[in-house]
Amino acid sequence: MSTMKAVGLYRYLPIDHPESLLDLQLEKPRVTGRDLLVRVKAVGVNPVDYKVRSPKEKVEHAPKILGWDVAGVVEQVGADCTLFQPGDEVYYAGDITRSGGNSEFHLVDERIVGKKPASLNFAQAAALPLTTITAYEALFDRMGISREHEVNENRTLLIIGAAGGVGSIAIQLAKKVGLTVIGTASRPESIEWAKELGADHTLNHYEEFVPQLQQLGFESVDYILCLNATEKHWENMAQAIAPQGKICSIVETEVPLPLTRLKNKSATFVWEFMFTRSMFQTEDMIEQHKLLNEVAEWLDDGSIKTTLNQRLAPINAETLRKAHSLLETGKAIGKIVVEGF
């Protein structure tokens, strides 16, 4: 039996606890069906990592492996694979119902894997999949935003939490299809980051949206992408959304939302969860393969760029604990990636 290094947990503990993430030796997984066995080169960290890891009573008998952003090299392919071959460089977010990518080798269904952008190194590529799928699905699938520049000429998108991981790629995708992008950011460094990535304007999310929008010359916005505290921004979103506009959020809420606030405007509210397709094995699961490939082309032609902002090494429990604690501040700008075993 061959083994591999991995980082995982048995107990759900605060990140400053030395056992919150552990260095492990596990059996190397075997490939079957439509799975690829990937040799992991770099992993991105996302809020989903610390949300899954957050303290609770539960104890795992088999170690729980986190990590849903991987760039690596295909080592083996299952008998039913048609999209990739050993040696292919890939990037993907994986499937939350399966073991995560914080391990030397990782199994993933090829239908949710993309060809790694050739112009990027593994760390730059690992920054992208989860946030890219989230932003792409939110804009084009959930809110049905057109891909035609002419259609979007006078249309506006407000991104709440524009300097974070999803916001950093959402700004770029929205600008690519011709939208006017207004991002929320509250610190000089996050405002600067959002503007560098293409945001046309920024507002402060600690103040009312509508007066700030009016100062910029907008009465309302056509689309809102909420990437932070849905209930906290609900009233501001209800006021700012245009009649027949669309709001998409990715952040679960602890309290019921007063949906009636959207009724007179016939406004749409929709969730985006990038694990839905893999979790329910939907018929259109392969759309994630296609969109990752499409975005790889945009990265390679220079029309968008990686959102990597911080690189840590190597991939071990200590480094991942540091990455989690940086994310848990809620102040991370762009993406944090951990590379190399």
Give structural notes:
With 341 residues, the chain is an alpha/beta fold. It folds into two domains: 3-128 and 276-339, Quinone Oxidoreductase, Chain A, domain 1, CATH 3.90.180.10; 132-271, NAD(P)-binding Rossmann-like Domain (Rossmann fold), CATH 3.40.50.720. Helices cover 28% and strands 29% of the residues. The chain is built from ten helices and 16 strands. The protein has helices spanning 47-53, 122-126, 129-142, 165-176, 188-196, 209-215, 230-240, 276-279, 287-300, 317-328; strands spanning 3-12, 22-27, 35-45, 56-65, 70-77, 89-92, 105-109, 113-115, 156-160, 180-184, 201-203, 221-226, 241-249, 268-271, 308-312, 335-339. Strands 3, 5, 6, 7, 8, 15 and 16 form a seven-stranded mixed sheet that branches. Helix 5 (188-196) links the parallel strand 10 and strand 11. Helix 3 packs across helix 4 (165-176). It is globular and about 65 Å long. The two termini are 20 Å apart. The mean pLDDT is 97.
